[in-house]
């Protein structure tokens, strides 16, 4: 056991060992396609999550005639369900709606008794920022325009995601607020909300398992085309001018994660604008734990998220 993993939940060790074997020199040395293939192989090994009344794949019209794949989870056929729009993680350039994300979406839908719409947004580096945010906004608008016969209650809607997906989700809350709308809640799981700020977690977890500081910079390089992108609030939500009138939220962070303090600082920014936000710090967890089925912290995280969503999306 190294200093980087001392104190980590032993349940995670096999996962860490797999990553270390596949990427001994980090994600950057492997390249985007190798990381994507590893992710696809890992997704294929994830068990199916809780049973749903229905799981349907569809396409939403995107920017410039593009098509955005989505997956709609409904735990029950009863009535019109509130909605969580979910954006997967993967450093904006890998990841999908399958595997651990599929398991997580099923788990949240079942525990909160809501519909979950998982978004397969365009990936970098083929599609640089803010393509992923544009796709998320397109899906949000599509759901808002959906008739009640679709079984989705657009008046009770939240957005959320993990890592890069949480970054996209946070950006959407600001854009939506600025055009006079307001989501009911936001769920940010170990979010990437600022670019390479020298906070303790960035230094202490420079060589953390799963995600290192160097890997984080590499992912940012895939997503952004120029240094100016890293000053764009659509890309770096912590740079937004106002944090007022944003939806209440939950932010979960992991102790062994360079992004830990990004999330905690973003919670402070939300509170400074008068936004209610609950934070939970998992002392034995690493980046990505919410898409690792069966971990105790993952199960607890789902409980927190579901409890918050049940309250936030309850009928008025």
SSE layout and pairings?
Layout: H1 13-22, H2 26-30, H3 32-44, E1 54-61, E2 67-74, E3 81-87, H4 100-112, E4 115-119, H5 131-144, E5 152-162, H6 164-178, E6 185-189, H7 200-204, H8 213-223, E7 249-256, H9 260-272, E8 277-286, H10 296-312
Parallel strand pairs: 3-4, 3-5, 5-6, 6-7, 7-8
Antiparallel strand pairs: 1-2, 2-4
Helix pairs in contact: 4-10, 5-6
Would you write up a description of this structure?
By secondary structure, the protein is of the alpha/beta class. It has one domain (10-312): Rossmann fold (3-Layer(aba) Sandwich), CATH 3.40.50.1820. It is built from 10 helices and 8 strands. Helix 5 packs across helix 6. The longest helix has 17 residues, at 296-312. The radius of gyration is 18 Å and the shape is globular. The termini are far apart.
Short précis:
One of its GO terms (molecular function) is hydrolase activity. This protein is an alpha/beta fold and 316 residues long.
**Main beta sheet, described?**
8 strands, mixed
Show unreliable segments: none
Please count the helical segments.
Answer: 10
Strand order in space, largest sheet: 1-2-4-3-5-6-7-8
Helix content: 25-40%
Mean pLDDT rating: 95
The gyration radius over C-alpha positions equals 18 Å
What distance lies between the first and last C-alpha atoms, to the nearest angstrom? 51 Å
Keywords:
Rossmann fold, alpha/beta, 37% helix, GDXG_lipolytic_enzyme, 20% strand, hydrolase activity, AB_hydrolase_fold, 8 strands, eight-stranded mixed β-sheet, 316 residues, Putative esterase, AB_hydrolase_3
């Amino acid at each position: 056991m190294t200093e980087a993993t001392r104190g980590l939940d032993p349940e995670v060790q096999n996962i860490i060992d797999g990553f270390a074997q596949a990427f001994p020199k980090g994600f950057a040395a492997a390249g985007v396609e190798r990381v994507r293939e590893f992710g696809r192989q890992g997704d294929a090994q994830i068990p199916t999550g809780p049973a749903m009344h229905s799981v349907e794949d569809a396409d939403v019209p995107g920017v410039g005639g593009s098509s955005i794949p989505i997956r709609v989870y409904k735990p029950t056929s009863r009535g019109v369900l509130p909605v969580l729009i979910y954006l997967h993680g993967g450093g904006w350039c890998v990841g999908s709606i399958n595997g651990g994300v599929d398991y997580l979406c099923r788990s949240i839908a079942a525990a909160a008794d809501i519909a979950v719409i998982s978004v397969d947004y365009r990936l970098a580096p083929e599609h640089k920022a803010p393509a992923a945010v544009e796709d998320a906004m397109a899906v949000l608008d599509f759901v808002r325009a959906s008739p009640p016969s679709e079984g989705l209650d657009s008046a009770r809607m939240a957005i959320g995601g993990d890592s890069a997906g949480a970054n996209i989700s946070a950006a959407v809350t600001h854009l939506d607020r600025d055009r006079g709308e307001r989501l009911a809640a936001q769920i940010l799981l170990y979010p990437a909300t600022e670019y390479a700020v020298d906070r303790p977690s960035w230094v202490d977890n420079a060589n953390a398992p799963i995600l290192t500081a160097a890997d984080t910079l590499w992912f940012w390089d895939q997503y952004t085309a120029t240094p100016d992108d890293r000053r764009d609030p659509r890309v770096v939500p912590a740079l937004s001018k106002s944090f007022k009138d944003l939806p209440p939220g939950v932010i979960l962070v992991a102790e062994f994660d360079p992004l830990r303090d990004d999330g905690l600082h973003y919670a402070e920014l939300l509170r400074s604008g008068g936004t209610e936000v609950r934070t939970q710090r998992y002392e034995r967890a690493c980046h990505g734990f919410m898409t690792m089925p069966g971990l105790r912290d993952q199960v607890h995280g789902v409980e927190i998220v579901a409890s918050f969503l049940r309250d936030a999306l309850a009928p008025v």
